[in-house]
Amino acid sequence: MNKGIEFIIRMVLKEVWARKKLAVSVYVLVAISFALLAAKWPQTFTSSATIIVDDRNIIRPLMEGTAQTTALTEPLKLARSMMSSRTSLKEVLTIGGWINSETSAKEIATLTENIRSRTEIKNQGKNIVKISFRDGDPERAYLATKSMSEIFIRESNLIKQRESESAYVFINTQAEKYRAKLKDADLAIKEFREKNVDSTPGAMRVTNERILTLTRNIEDLDIEILGQKSKLAAQREQLSGGGGAENTASINRENLLRVRISELKVKLEDLRLIYKDTYPDIIQIKTQIATTTDQIKSEIESRSAKKTYRKEELADSPIAQTLRSEILRTQTKTSTLNSRKEQLFLLLKKEREKVNRINAVEAEISELTRESAVNTTKYNQLIAQRESARISKDMDVAQQGINARIQEAAYLPVKSNGVRFLHLIILGFIVSLGAPLVLVFGLALIDQKIRDPQVILEKLQLPVLANVYQIKNKYEKRAELRSQIAVATIVALVWSVYAFEIWLKIQDKL
Amino acid sequence: MSIIESAFLKNKKEQSHNKNKNTPDDIGDIVGRADQDGMISSNKIVSAKENIAKMKQKRLYSQEELAELGFISKATTDTKLINEYRNLRTKLVEYAGQKNFVTLVTSVSANFNASMVIANLAATLALDEGKTSLVINADINNSEIDNIFGIEPKFGLVDFIRSSDVALDEIIYETPINRLRYIPVGLNIESSAEHFSDARMKETIASVLERYPERYIFINAPSISQSADTRILLGTSDKVILVVPYGKATEDGIRQAVLSIGKEKLAGIVLNEF
């Protein structure tokens, strides 16, 4: 590899020497071209300003829920729109000194386009916008950048103000609209209530209570009537003798008979202890028992079978008379109760009708009220929002909610950027030396002639006897020296041109 | 001269015949030089040396002149280059064995002539007092060698081949370098003709070969890619040296040249200016 490089260097030098006229011409041409280029190359200076657009300032958390700080959602977009605005750019042009009051519109248009192409706006992170501007004059680059950043801040604040102002106006209009609506709804309710007197608030409750009382009264009456009726039936029964008073004698008799029987039975048992059944006393007693039993039987029969025959027994008794007057009284009371009940029923019906009426009215009213309630809520909300908007607006007017500010102000560029004089000089120095070498090397590669003995030895496999060369005599040596001096002189001349140019540059005459 | 080379030469001389003694000699000034190696001791070699030592020599290049022309000389300080030529010489001597030896030197590229390579190669061989070398210029478009040797030829190889009136002696020129002779290509040449297909070319080479023992003949041929002459000349030579100049030959060019020379005839490649 080293050998290869060595060979290439040797070859290139040899070739350069063999084609020294071409090499030197190329060298001079390239070197002078670069020198001219460096002298004529326009210098550019770039100034830039960084603007931070922060949507979280101190006001925001303080005013949380009350006022909204207007956020510049897309600062980059805003900056771009600023750059497309003619008025903004014209301002920049005036500040930069490109135009005065006499400049024609056409010229201004050209300059505007020119400025636009030299301005670069880009996002540096989320909320940072960088505006850079390049110009041949550092002073002008600085002024233009400065004015651009200021215009950006001003414009963004204006936009914020306009935004909050229009928000306030909108909310205000909405609030007024709702207020009118609310007023209408309340009026409608009032009118309706006037038309339906029954349906005063609470009417429904009163009516319901009344219905309840009436129903309860009717129920009480029913019970009383029933009581009177049964009383009447009982009195009538009593009057017709079914009441049990006529049987008392018969029952008494029966009881007596039963006592007699039990006495007889005791006597019989006593006798049986002493006597046989055939004993006449016993037989007698037995007969007596049987007879008594029969008597009981007949008593019971007569009591149940012969009911009516003793009715007349009470007909004219004082009990009957009392009973009769009692019955009359009971009948009178019953009829009184019945008529009262009818009266109550009528009342109940009336009340029920009233309930229905009230229900209808209530439905209508609740409809109206609901509308009103919705409007009220909305209206209250809007009033609160309007107040927030007012504060936001005031805040923007007072520039308290500012969220665009210059983070890094425009500066006066000292060093030109892009391809600079020194770059071109150095480049010219290197390229002018390299170009002839590359050229001759390229030519050597292209012509395919053999310059490497290895090709003959290795590729063609031919024996190489010797490698000879011409010894230079003194004339040839002198001629060569002359060529060397000539080449060196040319190179030195070119270098002195470079040196002169650098000197001019340092003296600031270029 | 390396020890190995000397030993090799010694071995070779001991096996050689006596016929070298009988070859006709040029009689001329004696410009003797001390034997630097002092390792050649055989009688036969001494006799060959004597023959060679009797070669004519009117004028010699000074060290300055040699350097100016780009020759390898005793004053040359570039040991790397000297070694390259020495190695080349050793290899050729190796190929030659005991015979006199004909080497064709041709360039692979038409836009490069190997005049200086051939001149230096011949001069290097002639450094050895026991050896002579002869350069035959067979490239009709190349008069550079005439200038290198400082010769204004009246006749040349083509004249000799075409006309029997010209004697061999008339075309062999003495050069300002010891033990180095030169046959130029000639003056009146029709460039389109093939000059060397004649049998007289072979005769010429053969007679030249026999003039001295230990004679090395180098034929400067035009680029093999260019001239049909070179292919004809191949028949008259023992080995071929292909000169590859730096940055002027392609791989394909070399391949084709080697193919027309033939692998067995190719001594090897000499790289120039690599």
Strand content of chain B: 5-15%
Multimerization state: heterodimer
Q: What is the typical, i.e. mean, pLDDT of chain A?
A: 83
Class computed from helices, strands and strand pairing of chain A? alpha+beta
Strand order of the largest sheet of chain B: 3-4-2-5-1-6-7
Helicity level of chain B: 25-40%
Please state the CA-atom Rg of chain A, rounded to the nearest Å: 68 Å
Q: Which percent band covers the strand fraction of chain A?
A: 5-15%
Q: Which ranges of chain A are low-confidence, i.e. pLDDT below 50, for 5 or more consecutive residues?
A: none
Question: Per the principal axes of the C-alpha atoms, what is the gross shape of chain A?
Answer: elongated
Span between N and C termini of chain B? 25 Å
Strand order of the largest sheet of chain A: 2-3-1-4
Inertia-based shape of chain B:
globular
Question: What structural class results from the helix and strand content of chain B?
Answer: alpha/beta
SSE pattern of chain B, N- to C-terminal: HHHHEHEHHHEEHEHEHE
The biggest sheet of chain B amounts to: 7 strands, mixed
Q: How many E-type strands of chain B?
A: 7
Task: Provide the descriptors you would attach to this structure in a database record.
heterodimer, A: 510 residues, alpha+beta, 4-stranded antiparallel sheet, 15 helices, B: 274 residues, alpha/beta, 7-stranded mixed sheet, 11 helices, globular
